[in-house]
Amino acid sequence: MPVVADGEVVTVPDPHIRDPAPGLAGTLFGAPAPAAAPLDALADALRDGTGELSAHVSALYVLPAGGTVLELLMINGLPPEFVSGWEHISLPTPLPVADAAREGRLIWVGDEQEMARRYPRVAVALPYDFRLAATPLTADGVTHGSMFVAWPARHPRLLAERERERLEALAGELAGLLARTRPPVRAGEPLVVLPETGPPGSEVALLELLERLPDGKCALDLRGRVVYATPCAAKLLDVPAEQLLGRRPWRVLPWLRDPAYEDRYRAALVSREPTSFVAFRPPDQWLAFQLYPGPTGLTVRITAAEAAQGDLPGPAPAPPPAEPAAGMPTRAGALYHILHLATALTEAVGVQDVVRLVADQIAPAFGGQAVALLVAEGGRLRNIGHRGYPPGVVERIDGTPLTRQTPGVQALTSGVPAFFESREELERVYPVRPEVQDTMAAWAYLPLVASGRLVGTCVLAFARPHRFTVDERAVLTSVGGLIAQALDRARVYDAKLELAHGLQESLLPHALPLLPGLETAARYLPGTEGMDIGGDFYDVIRVDRHHAGAVIGDVQGHNVRAAALMGQIRTSVHAFAKAGAPPDMVLARTNQLMAYLDTGLLASCAYLRLDLNRRRAALAVAGHPRPLVRDPRGQVRLLDAPGGLLLGVVADTGYPVTRLPLPAGTTVALYTDGLVEGPGVDLDESVAALADQLARHGAGPLETVADALVAHAERAKHRTDDTALLLLRSVPR
Known about the structure:
733 residues, alpha+beta, Beta-Lactamase, 4 domains, six-stranded antiparallel sheet, 22 helices, 30 strands, elongated, magnesium, transferase, PAS, kinase activity, EC 3.1.3.16
């Protein structure tokens, strides 16, 4: 079927037929492959399924095997620039298609307000009312990608059950097509799925009908280009019709360059609702524009405003808009794009998050192939992150003295952006520079200024010569300021994180003591997102020749304060345990210490005192998950142990003690809630699954058992909490 690739209509070849033009598959998909995905079948399924759902927009993302970035393959119902910046989406990114793929479930957003609340980046870039569903493309337990489907604002705010079933069927069909071949990967714009055209009719009669009407009519394709204009429309616009054809009206007519006018076009396409506006055509004419969207584009009705003002739903005409300042972006899309990038950068936490966002979203949005972030340290230029450059190139830049005349140094020290549209232009200004062998052909050097301080340089490189328009230079300079602020915050965060991690590592045991009659194994897993540092801790304490203590806990919060409190709790438990205190006293005294410190934080904890000579134990629990016990016969049970309040709730409280035998071969599993809890996870089912793993693998070496128990948690891509596991096995002395 015909699709559009990089603005040109092409026919996707049947993958089972040999390509008569060698290199065509490589041109479209990045590189020739013996088993290219059936793009025609995918496009047909996406287009037909979208129509059956009465939706108007859809897009298909693929997830390469073992990959963590969704790649936009094709889009239906909108031009690609509407999703600029979202061609490559990392799985942790808070966007509907990423959430659907990561969590393995359908995501539904019922209105504009819900979109703003849950996905502000989408709401900022597309501030229109529409409904959206995103669903993973999964076949045989393997996620091959994700898709989204959008409906006009007139669709109900709830997804009907029959629509859900049809959506799941469409997702299954697309996933099956992707599963049968290697997922396609291509460079450049995504493929645009074209709607089916109707049967041919009398075009001459239709044109004559339109030209007899007293008002002007224009037809725009999905990209906003004029494909037909009546003579009356050309007369009202005061421009020959041939100058309009194939171009966007706001590119031809300076008085239509106000972003508010283009915004009405964008609103009509996204919401699929008619829109209108009034514009002033110099020197003395107001014109009313009414836009009617459809699957293939928009029909525009143009009338003199005096004749139609009473019928317009919008406000009365405003004074003629002032001409935009030179160098400022006038496109609504460009303004929304800056807002989208600003929102994305506010989500960056560390320096590498900034690098990833710049490389995955900002660089592709401007057509760049490589980026590097450079800062000044010790009088030299230092690289703190890069993407897209050949190996060794950025390393040669790293360490460049700030006294050397290079574009990277000059942008950092002067605060003035520099744009080079070709290698020849760059070499005229900088005949000798370390970056000369970087294989790129055009560059933008953006100074990074935050709070009035020069913090670095962002280098955006292009593989081919690139013309930087006045608008693009202004936008890139603005984006440089956003990157600078994000980078400044990220470097502070990384410094604090390094301090916190150092503190945490110094507090967790580097090795557990060797005790006669007891085998031990431990694991710690940090959370996958939203984490500074973890508050989980564990330890094994040698009390005397025949006794030992085992403790595990979870401090509220993920910051330096939580790590410091973790150390204080661990020290307290050590002190009381070494003094021979029973479990209830260990927790009671530690709780009193927390009340005295008045940190405002809470902690859960379980302390087990082991009598290695008599093979028995005593347990006290403060709001912590109960241990699992595997007996020598292989039977596993959740220990029925009454517990007390979390540490830090009230100063004076008691903690019941549970006693249990520990015959040789008994294994006790102490763990924190991160091992069994997660979004959408039933806690009882998760604990039962953990018990099943302990029963199945518990007879093996304890290190192997630990690996098996944490494997399930490691597979969870959306693990919001850190995890600690401590295994104890009673063995002959």
